[in-house]
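Protein in question quoted for reference:
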Amino acid sequence: MISIKNLHKFYGNGESRNEVLKGVSLDIEDGDFVVILGASGSGKSTLLNVISGLEPADTGNVSYNDRDISSMNDADMTLFRKETIGYVFQQYFLLPNLNVDKNVKMGADLAGNKNYRTLIEAVGLADKLKKYPHELSGGEQQRVSIARALAKRPQVLFLDEPTGALDEATGRMVLGLICKLQKEMGFTMVMVTHNQNIAQIADTVISMNSGRIVNQSHNDNPKSADEIAW
């Protein structure tokens, strides 16, 4: 379980100091698929970054199965992220000088994963191993980034607007792929989006506004990516 207690996060100083997270508390069960909803500026991406250890909170605690990451030094935090966390961004952040195989291998090497090509096959890119990012479509690049994140064998996969740069058909395909892989591999998944329809595919839905959680609900029968409106 990920336990988040009373997180506060500020940006800026003096008169320009802005409180982005205002006492956020939340528990995320192992194996859950959580979608965090909110408009731009609601604090959802900041919350994702703090939970995943990319940014520190100013006050509050984040614990993974009673292991508090909030007070870790830089070296311990780097090791924790390496061993525990996978991250997929809206922008793909592939290395342009590496082909598909080598981009995914970067993630695999962090976990000593010799079987990473099974993930490339799972995301439907077995025939693109030697292609470079500029030779791929946006959807293909996002599938490479998903395979790279999962090649680390993370316990938790964080996704920040993973379909934000994709058209509807490609976005549906990527969402369907992510859900399929989660069911097969059993990792916990936390996704940030502003698209309320995407929340219908999640187990748990967290709604944020102005740095606070304003609603939390559970979907007893999550829809597939093909069933939701866009």
Remarks:
- Helices lie at 44-51, 74-84, 100-111, 117-122, 138-150, 168-185.
